[in-house]
Amino acid sequence: MKKTLIAYSSTDGHTIRICEKIKSTIADQSNVTLVNIENSSTTQLEDFDCIILGASIRYGNHKASLYSFIRDNKTLLNSKKTAFFNVNAVARKEEKSSITTNPYLKKFLKRTSWQPDLLGVFAGKISYPKYNFFDKHMIRFIMWMSKGPTDQTKTFEFTDWHKVEAFSKRVLAELLIN
Ligand SMILES: Cc1cc2nc3c(=O)[nH]c(=O)nc-3n(C[C@H](O)[C@H](O)[C@H](O)COP(=O)(O)O)c2cc1C
Questions:
Q1: Which of 37, 92, 139, 155 to mutate to test the pocket of ligand 1 (most atoms within 8 A of CB)?
Q2: How far, in Å, is the centroid of ligand 1 from the Cα of 3?
Q3: Helix axes 161-170, 14-26, angle to 10 degrees
């Protein structure tokens, strides 16, 4: 059975949920290990056939640790089957939800010059009650600017789980079974 590493870069945990969904979809046909990218220095990347990275956006950016992981392991990543997906609030909008139209994915690909075999974009989740004062007001302003929901007593999940499932099936078909 082929081995898959799913490494996540997440602040509030939603990207981890997406990674877990991918894991559950492919686990029958691949041996899957899930790790936080920030604690992955002891992971033997060369042991895996397939490496999937999932990362969320905060204040317009991915975490620096995502970029350092890619920089430090570029040669190895290029020798494996790879997938990358990002998670952000802007992707809730139809016109910004695809791999060619999501501004953060375009920026990421340009900045890293990495070309994963498979790409994905998923809309995330806004949990107003969970955030601290500063983040709550900042994301509320961002949502107001982009005509999103601003009720700070509520949680809004925008993720299309069918899209996550379809992505997982492509991982199986295109990266693991050949
Ligand atoms: C403080 C804060 C800032 C955010 N900034 C952005 C942003 O600039 N653009 C965007 O599309 N989404 C933004 N988001 C939405 C997150 O990408 C979304 O909540 C995602 O689900 C977070 O995933 P995580 O829980 O794995 O960190 C922001 C969320 C928070 C709480």
A1: 139
A2: 30
A3: 50
pLDDT > 80? residue 178: no
Determine if the pTM surpasses 0.85. Answer: yes
Q: Return the ligand 1 atom nearest residue 90 CA.
A: 11
Burial class (CB in 10 A: 0-12, 13-18, 19+), 49: middle
| Encoded amino acid at 141, one letter | F
Q: What is the CATH number of domain 2-124+159-176?
A: 3.40.50.360
The residues lining ligand 1, judged by C-beta closer than 6 Å to any ligand atom, are 10-15, 56-60, 87-90, 124-126, 131, 135, 138-139, 142
Q: Which two tokens stand for residue 43?
A: 């992971």
Q: Ligand 1 centroid vs 81 CA: distance in angstroms? A: 28
Q: Each residue of 108-159: pLDDT tens digit?
A: 999 999 999 999 999 999 999 999 999 999 999 999 999 999 999 999 999 9
Over residues 62-121, the pLDDT tens digits come to: 999 999 999 999 999 999 999 999 999 999 999 999 999 999 999 999 999 999 999 999
pLDDT digits (tens, 9 = 90+) for 32-47: 999 999 998 899 999 9
Domain spans of the chain? Answer: 2-124+159-176, 126-158
Answer yes or no: are the C-beta atoms of 117 and 99 closer than 8 Å.
no
